Amino acid sequence: MADxxxxxxxxxxxxxxxxxxxxxxxxxxASALIDMSIALxxxxxxxxxxxxxxxxxxxxxxxxxxxxxxxxxxxIDAMEKFNQTTIMSVVHYFKDQAHLKGNKPAGLLIIYLERxxxxxMLRLLQYPYIDSxxxxxxxxxxxxxxxxxxxxxKNELKVLGYEDLEMSxxxxxxxxxxxxxxxxxxxxxxxELSFVIDxxxxxVVEMVMAPLVKKQV
Amino acid sequence: MKILMVDDSALDRKLMxxxxxxxxxxxxxxxxxxxxxxxxxxxxxxxxxxxxxxxxQMPNMSGLEVLSAVAKVPLIASVPIIMVTASGSxxxxxxxxxxxxxxxxxxxxPYKAEDLLAAIKPFLK
Lengths: 217, 125
Hints:
The complex is a heterodimer. Chain A is of the alpha+beta class. Chain A contains 5 helices and 10 strands; from the N terminus they run ααββββαβααβββββ. In chain A, β9 and β10 form a beta hairpin. The model of chain A has no long low-confidence stretch (mean pLDDT 89). The chains are: A alpha+beta, B alpha/beta.
């Protein structure tokens, strides 16, 4: 009887171990980030194709860069993206509602747009006209664009087999964010995707993602 | 009767208004920029609202929280709500339906003008 109990608890332990989340190694995460950056590119192309049939001049340039943090927050500076006033919008991803409420991000996207190009970008997506001199209009416009991209990226991550994520609402800024933004703890790399429309760099998107768990099949 | 439009993006509200206008929808449009404001409007004017267009990701109170809150108040639970969101996964749709089984529709941004008009027309009074 005692042997049977021992055997049963041993089997249960083995089953639990088999289904337990295995830690993701740095090499696996590095490989996953490449897949995610490609998925992000696909998501962005889908957004623009779905609504506007816009074709990007070429595939995006994807670059891996180090994260610059200050006081535990991700520093964002637009000056290296365009030589003009730049609008940035940020959306965070969370593992679930509890992490969203506790502000523990699993990832984030940042888009960078030349301020003067925001109205044209919106026109491509069939949005109403906005005034590029009006801060509220450009913040809102850039926010509407990142919202579309972030929603589609979330779907592409699911195609890769990841659990569904929660999304924050957007925040928009001009040129820099001195206080930085939250980012997943422990991450050191960000992926930058630059898109060219009509032979000019028009859209830059950055992605920082923590290791994500894939769905159990 | 009025249409309640709830979205933190003024531009998205403007886009919806323009589509409704071009689609000859004559109902007055009431706007709210977050879930809290939407609930306040619903509580005070539910008899005048024929349909709600509700975004998901918003500050203060998300669309999902609004759906859940509305479902718990019998007086306003029958007001048709259509989610209009960039989050289009099956899980999101299920979460929305679980939060409010009376959910009247689910549109994924970017949507086509005709899809928005088709979604709201059955509820116009």
